[in-house]
Design brief:
Blueprint (H helix, E strand, L loop, with lengths): L14 H10 L17 H11 L6 E5 L3 H12 L15 E3 L5 E5 L5 H6 L5 E5 H10 L4 E6 L5 E8 L4 H6 L4 E5 L2 H11 L3 E5 L6 H4 L5 E6 L3 H5 L2 E10 L1 E6 H6 L1 H16 L1
Parallel strand pairs: 1-3, 1-4, 7-8, 7-9
Antiparallel strand pairs: 2-3, 4-11, 5-11, 6-9, 6-10
Helix pairs in contact: 2-11, 3-11
The structure holds adenosine-5'-triphosphate and 1-O-pyrophosphono-5-O-phosphono-alpha-D-ribofuranose (PRP).
Protein backbone atom coordinates (compact mmCIF):
# COMPACT_ATOMS: atom_id res chain seq x y z
CA UNK A 1 0.00 0.00 0.00
CA UNK A 2 1.20 3.54 -0.65
CA UNK A 3 1.44 6.06 2.11
CA UNK A 4 -0.73 9.09 1.33
CA UNK A 5 0.96 12.47 1.24
CA UNK A 6 -1.58 14.00 3.59
CA UNK A 7 -4.56 12.07 4.89
CA UNK A 8 -7.74 14.00 5.57
CA UNK A 9 -7.09 13.94 9.29
CA UNK A 10 -3.96 16.01 8.78
CA UNK A 11 -5.33 19.02 7.00
CA UNK A 12 -5.00 22.40 8.68
CA UNK A 13 -7.50 22.45 11.56
CA UNK A 14 -10.46 24.79 11.44
CA UNK A 15 -11.14 26.94 14.47
CA UNK A 16 -13.65 24.39 15.77
CA UNK A 17 -11.22 21.50 15.34
CA UNK A 18 -8.53 23.56 17.03
CA UNK A 19 -10.78 23.91 20.05
CA UNK A 20 -11.50 20.17 19.93
CA UNK A 21 -7.80 19.36 19.78
CA UNK A 22 -7.06 21.62 22.74
CA UNK A 23 -9.74 19.72 24.62
CA UNK A 24 -7.89 16.54 23.74
CA UNK A 25 -4.89 18.03 25.52
CA UNK A 26 -2.49 16.61 22.94
CA UNK A 27 -3.10 13.04 24.06
CA UNK A 28 -6.20 11.15 23.15
CA UNK A 29 -5.79 8.56 25.82
CA UNK A 30 -4.75 10.52 28.90
CA UNK A 31 -7.72 11.37 31.09
CA UNK A 32 -7.87 14.68 32.88
CA UNK A 33 -6.88 14.07 36.50
CA UNK A 34 -8.93 15.43 39.38
CA UNK A 35 -7.37 18.30 41.37
CA UNK A 36 -5.75 15.94 43.87
CA UNK A 37 -4.13 14.01 41.02
CA UNK A 38 -5.60 10.70 42.26
CA UNK A 39 -7.77 8.68 39.87
CA UNK A 40 -11.23 8.30 41.44
CA UNK A 41 -12.75 4.85 41.94
CA UNK A 42 -15.86 3.83 40.01
CA UNK A 43 -17.96 4.38 43.13
CA UNK A 44 -16.59 7.88 43.44
CA UNK A 45 -17.39 8.52 39.74
CA UNK A 46 -21.03 7.67 40.33
CA UNK A 47 -21.10 9.72 43.55
CA UNK A 48 -19.53 12.72 41.78
CA UNK A 49 -22.11 12.51 39.02
CA UNK A 50 -24.96 12.31 41.51
CA UNK A 51 -23.56 15.29 43.40
CA UNK A 52 -23.29 17.28 40.18
CA UNK A 53 -26.75 16.33 38.94
CA UNK A 54 -29.13 19.21 38.49
CA UNK A 55 -32.79 19.41 37.65
CA UNK A 56 -32.15 19.26 33.88
CA UNK A 57 -33.03 15.55 33.64
CA UNK A 58 -30.61 12.76 32.82
CA UNK A 59 -27.64 13.28 30.55
CA UNK A 60 -28.24 11.81 27.09
CA UNK A 61 -25.57 9.71 25.34
CA UNK A 62 -26.15 9.02 21.63
CA UNK A 63 -24.96 5.65 20.31
CA UNK A 64 -25.53 3.58 17.19
CA UNK A 65 -26.52 -0.04 17.57
CA UNK A 66 -24.18 -2.80 16.50
CA UNK A 67 -20.45 -2.56 16.96
CA UNK A 68 -20.38 0.88 18.61
CA UNK A 69 -23.07 -0.08 21.14
CA UNK A 70 -21.37 -3.43 21.78
CA UNK A 71 -17.90 -1.93 22.22
CA UNK A 72 -19.19 0.93 24.39
CA UNK A 73 -20.86 -1.36 26.95
CA UNK A 74 -17.56 -2.44 28.58
CA UNK A 75 -16.48 1.22 28.81
CA UNK A 76 -19.75 2.13 30.51
CA UNK A 77 -19.43 -0.90 32.80
CA UNK A 78 -15.98 0.32 33.81
CA UNK A 79 -17.63 3.61 34.76
CA UNK A 80 -20.09 1.68 36.95
CA UNK A 81 -23.02 1.98 34.50
CA UNK A 82 -25.03 -1.00 33.25
CA UNK A 83 -27.58 -1.07 30.42
CA UNK A 84 -30.24 -3.75 30.77
CA UNK A 85 -31.64 -3.67 27.22
CA UNK A 86 -29.89 -4.26 23.91
CA UNK A 87 -31.14 -2.31 20.88
CA UNK A 88 -30.68 -5.42 18.72
CA UNK A 89 -33.55 -7.08 20.58
CA UNK A 90 -35.46 -4.06 21.87
CA UNK A 91 -37.25 -1.65 19.53
CA UNK A 92 -36.88 1.14 22.09
CA UNK A 93 -34.85 4.13 20.99
CA UNK A 94 -34.44 5.61 24.46
CA UNK A 95 -32.80 3.24 26.92
CA UNK A 96 -32.42 3.86 30.64
CA UNK A 97 -29.21 2.89 32.41
CA UNK A 98 -28.49 1.78 35.96
CA UNK A 99 -27.54 5.42 36.63
CA UNK A 100 -30.72 7.51 36.79
CA UNK A 101 -28.61 10.48 35.67
CA UNK A 102 -27.74 8.89 32.31
CA UNK A 103 -29.88 7.59 29.44
CA UNK A 104 -28.97 6.37 25.96
CA UNK A 105 -30.56 7.21 22.64
CA UNK A 106 -30.08 4.85 19.69
CA UNK A 107 -29.55 6.56 16.32
CA UNK A 108 -27.90 5.83 12.95
CA UNK A 109 -24.09 5.99 13.18
CA UNK A 110 -23.95 8.93 10.77
CA UNK A 111 -26.64 10.80 12.75
CA UNK A 112 -24.79 10.73 16.09
CA UNK A 113 -22.87 14.01 15.49
CA UNK A 114 -26.08 15.77 14.44
CA UNK A 115 -27.91 14.83 17.67
CA UNK A 116 -24.92 15.98 19.71
CA UNK A 117 -24.24 19.17 17.78
CA UNK A 118 -27.86 20.34 18.08
CA UNK A 119 -27.94 19.46 21.79
CA UNK A 120 -30.57 16.69 21.52
CA UNK A 121 -27.85 14.54 23.08
CA UNK A 122 -25.23 15.88 25.50
CA UNK A 123 -22.59 13.53 24.19
CA UNK A 124 -22.18 10.61 21.83
CA UNK A 125 -19.79 8.16 20.24
CA UNK A 126 -18.94 8.32 16.53
CA UNK A 127 -16.29 6.98 14.17
CA UNK A 128 -13.67 9.36 12.82
CA UNK A 129 -15.02 8.51 9.34
CA UNK A 130 -18.44 9.85 10.31
CA UNK A 131 -16.89 12.90 11.99
CA UNK A 132 -14.92 13.86 8.84
CA UNK A 133 -18.08 13.80 6.76
CA UNK A 134 -20.15 15.64 9.37
CA UNK A 135 -17.51 18.38 9.84
CA UNK A 136 -17.62 19.17 6.12
CA UNK A 137 -21.31 20.07 6.39
CA UNK A 138 -21.34 21.43 9.95
CA UNK A 139 -17.93 22.84 10.89
CA UNK A 140 -17.15 23.41 14.58
CA UNK A 141 -19.60 22.79 17.37
CA UNK A 142 -18.33 19.47 18.69
CA UNK A 143 -15.68 18.75 21.29
CA UNK A 144 -13.79 15.49 20.78
CA UNK A 145 -12.15 14.96 24.15
CA UNK A 146 -11.34 11.23 23.95
CA UNK A 147 -10.28 8.73 21.31
CA UNK A 148 -11.97 5.62 22.69
CA UNK A 149 -9.93 3.22 20.54
CA UNK A 150 -13.01 1.17 19.68
CA UNK A 151 -14.49 0.15 16.29
CA UNK A 152 -11.02 0.29 14.81
CA UNK A 153 -10.55 -0.06 11.09
CA UNK A 154 -8.91 1.77 8.16
CA UNK A 155 -10.32 3.98 5.45
CA UNK A 156 -8.85 2.58 2.24
CA UNK A 157 -8.90 2.86 -1.52
CA UNK A 158 -9.69 -0.53 -3.07
CA UNK A 159 -9.93 -1.79 -6.65
CA UNK A 160 -10.76 -4.99 -8.53
CA UNK A 161 -7.97 -7.56 -8.47
CA UNK A 162 -6.01 -7.02 -11.68
CA UNK A 163 -6.87 -3.34 -12.05
CA UNK A 164 -3.57 -1.44 -12.34
CA UNK A 165 -4.30 1.43 -9.98
CA UNK A 166 -0.71 2.72 -9.95
CA UNK A 167 -0.66 2.91 -13.75
CA UNK A 168 -4.03 4.66 -13.86
CA UNK A 169 -2.82 7.24 -11.33
CA UNK A 170 0.56 7.60 -13.07
CA UNK A 171 -1.07 8.17 -16.47
CA UNK A 172 -3.31 10.87 -14.99
CA UNK A 173 -6.48 8.97 -15.89
CA UNK A 174 -9.69 10.38 -14.47
CA UNK A 175 -10.92 7.77 -11.98
CA UNK A 176 -14.49 7.02 -11.02
CA UNK A 177 -14.59 6.43 -7.28
CA UNK A 178 -17.68 5.21 -5.42
CA UNK A 179 -17.91 5.96 -1.72
CA UNK A 180 -20.01 6.90 1.27
CA UNK A 181 -17.04 8.98 2.48
CA UNK A 182 -17.11 11.73 -0.13
CA UNK A 183 -15.32 14.38 1.90
CA UNK A 184 -12.44 12.15 2.97
CA UNK A 185 -12.10 10.78 -0.57
CA UNK A 186 -12.14 14.26 -2.12
CA UNK A 187 -9.38 15.47 0.21
CA UNK A 188 -7.29 12.35 -0.29
CA UNK A 189 -7.33 12.46 -4.09
CA UNK A 190 -6.89 16.25 -4.16
CA UNK A 191 -3.77 15.90 -1.99
CA UNK A 192 -2.42 13.30 -4.47
CA UNK A 193 -3.34 15.46 -7.47
CA UNK A 194 -5.55 12.70 -8.89
CA UNK A 195 -8.67 13.71 -10.83
CA UNK A 196 -11.71 11.78 -9.68
CA UNK A 197 -15.44 11.68 -10.30
CA UNK A 198 -16.95 10.81 -6.94
CA UNK A 199 -20.12 8.73 -6.87
CA UNK A 200 -21.96 8.86 -3.56
CA UNK A 201 -23.23 5.53 -2.25
CA UNK A 202 -24.80 4.66 1.10
CA UNK A 203 -23.54 1.07 1.48
CA UNK A 204 -22.31 -2.08 -0.31
CA UNK A 205 -19.52 -0.06 -1.91
CA UNK A 206 -17.68 -3.28 -2.77
CA UNK A 207 -20.22 -3.96 -5.49
CA UNK A 208 -19.45 -0.81 -7.50
CA UNK A 209 -16.20 -1.94 -9.21
CA UNK A 210 -17.67 -5.39 -9.89
CA UNK A 211 -20.56 -4.09 -11.96
CA UNK A 212 -18.79 -1.22 -13.72
CA UNK A 213 -20.12 1.63 -11.62
CA UNK A 214 -16.64 2.69 -10.49
CA UNK A 215 -12.92 2.02 -10.98
CA UNK A 216 -12.24 2.23 -7.26
CA UNK A 217 -13.98 2.54 -3.92
CA UNK A 218 -13.13 4.30 -0.70
CA UNK A 219 -14.42 2.19 2.17
CA UNK A 220 -13.63 0.91 5.63
CA UNK A 221 -11.50 -2.20 5.95
CA UNK A 222 -10.98 -4.18 9.12
CA UNK A 223 -10.23 -7.88 8.59
CA UNK A 224 -10.16 -7.49 4.81
CA UNK A 225 -12.72 -10.28 4.56
CA UNK A 226 -15.30 -8.25 2.64
CA UNK A 227 -12.76 -7.11 0.04
CA UNK A 228 -11.45 -10.66 -0.37
CA UNK A 229 -14.93 -12.12 -0.76
CA UNK A 230 -15.52 -9.70 -3.62
CA UNK A 231 -12.14 -10.05 -5.38
CA UNK A 232 -11.04 -6.56 -4.42
CA UNK A 233 -7.71 -5.41 -3.03
CA UNK A 234 -6.78 -2.41 -0.90
CA UNK A 235 -4.25 -0.23 -2.73
CA UNK A 236 -3.97 2.69 -0.35
CA UNK A 237 -4.70 3.36 3.29
CA UNK A 238 -6.10 6.86 3.69
CA UNK A 239 -6.37 7.08 7.46
CA UNK A 240 -6.78 4.78 10.48
CA UNK A 241 -10.23 5.00 12.05
CA UNK A 242 -11.46 4.63 15.61
CA UNK A 243 -14.41 6.07 17.49
CA UNK A 244 -14.38 9.25 19.52
CA UNK A 245 -16.39 10.58 22.39
CA UNK A 246 -18.03 13.79 21.15
CA UNK A 247 -19.58 16.37 23.43
CA UNK A 248 -22.01 19.22 22.88
CA UNK A 249 -20.24 22.50 23.62
CA UNK A 250 -23.13 24.03 25.60
CA UNK A 251 -23.57 20.86 27.69
CA UNK A 252 -19.88 20.88 28.52
CA UNK A 253 -20.31 24.35 29.99
CA UNK A 254 -23.71 24.03 31.65
CA UNK A 255 -23.50 20.40 32.84
CA UNK A 256 -19.77 20.07 33.42
CA UNK A 257 -20.15 18.66 36.94
CA UNK A 258 -22.13 15.70 35.59
CA UNK A 259 -20.31 15.28 32.29
CA UNK A 260 -16.68 15.60 33.28
CA UNK A 261 -16.58 12.53 35.57
CA UNK A 262 -18.10 10.44 32.77
CA UNK A 263 -15.66 11.84 30.20
CA UNK A 264 -12.80 11.03 32.58
CA UNK A 265 -14.18 7.52 33.18
CA UNK A 266 -14.40 6.89 29.41
CA UNK A 267 -10.83 8.11 29.00
CA UNK A 268 -9.54 5.85 31.76
CA UNK A 269 -11.47 2.81 30.50
CA UNK A 270 -10.31 3.28 26.89
CA UNK A 271 -6.69 3.68 27.97
CA UNK A 272 -6.79 0.58 30.21
N1 LIG B 1 -15.61 -3.57 9.74
C1 LIG B 1 -15.44 -2.67 10.71
N2 LIG B 1 -14.64 -2.94 11.74
C2 LIG B 1 -14.47 -2.06 12.74
N3 LIG B 1 -15.08 -0.84 12.78
C3 LIG B 1 -15.90 -0.53 11.78
C4 LIG B 1 -16.12 -1.42 10.70
N4 LIG B 1 -17.00 -0.86 9.85
C5 LIG B 1 -17.30 0.33 10.39
N5 LIG B 1 -16.64 0.55 11.53
C6 LIG B 1 -16.71 1.73 12.43
O1 LIG B 1 -17.92 1.62 13.16
C7 LIG B 1 -18.77 2.73 12.90
C8 LIG B 1 -20.21 2.27 12.90
O2 LIG B 1 -20.38 1.32 11.87
P1 LIG B 1 -21.81 0.72 11.57
O3 LIG B 1 -21.58 -0.35 10.54
O4 LIG B 1 -22.49 0.37 12.84
O5 LIG B 1 -22.60 1.93 10.97
P2 LIG B 1 -22.81 2.29 9.44
O6 LIG B 1 -23.65 1.24 8.83
O7 LIG B 1 -21.45 2.56 8.85
O8 LIG B 1 -23.56 3.71 9.57
P3 LIG B 1 -25.00 4.17 9.04
O9 LIG B 1 -25.99 3.25 9.71
O10 LIG B 1 -25.13 5.59 9.51
O11 LIG B 1 -24.95 4.02 7.54
C9 LIG B 1 -18.28 3.30 11.57
O12 LIG B 1 -18.59 4.68 11.47
C10 LIG B 1 -16.79 3.05 11.66
O13 LIG B 1 -16.15 4.07 12.40
O1 LIG C 1 -12.71 -5.74 6.43
P1 LIG C 1 -13.95 -6.30 7.01
O2 LIG C 1 -13.75 -6.87 8.39
O3 LIG C 1 -14.65 -7.26 6.09
O4 LIG C 1 -14.95 -5.07 7.26
C1 LIG C 1 -15.23 -4.18 6.21
C2 LIG C 1 -16.69 -3.98 6.07
O5 LIG C 1 -17.19 -3.42 7.30
C3 LIG C 1 -18.01 -2.32 6.96
O6 LIG C 1 -19.29 -2.77 6.63
P2 LIG C 1 -20.32 -3.20 7.77
O7 LIG C 1 -19.98 -4.53 8.31
O8 LIG C 1 -20.40 -2.11 8.81
O9 LIG C 1 -21.65 -3.26 6.99
P3 LIG C 1 -22.50 -2.00 6.48
O10 LIG C 1 -21.57 -1.15 5.63
O11 LIG C 1 -23.59 -2.64 5.70
O12 LIG C 1 -22.95 -1.27 7.73
C4 LIG C 1 -17.37 -1.74 5.71
O13 LIG C 1 -18.27 -0.93 4.99
C5 LIG C 1 -16.94 -2.97 4.96
O14 LIG C 1 -17.95 -3.44 4.08
Amino acid sequence: MNTPARPPGERAPSHGEDVAQRQEGGSSSTPARPPGGRVPSHGEDVAQRQEGRRSAGPLTLALSKGRIFDETMPLLAAAGVEVAENPESSRKLILPTSDPGLRLIIVRASDVPTYVQYGAADFGIAGKDVLFEHAAQHPGGLYQPVDLNIAKCRLCVAVRQGFDYEAAVHQGSRLRVATKYVQAAREHFAAKGVYVDLIKLYGSMELAPLVGLADAIVDLVSTGGTLKANNLVAVEEIVPISSRLIVNQASLKTRAAELQPLIDAFARASAA
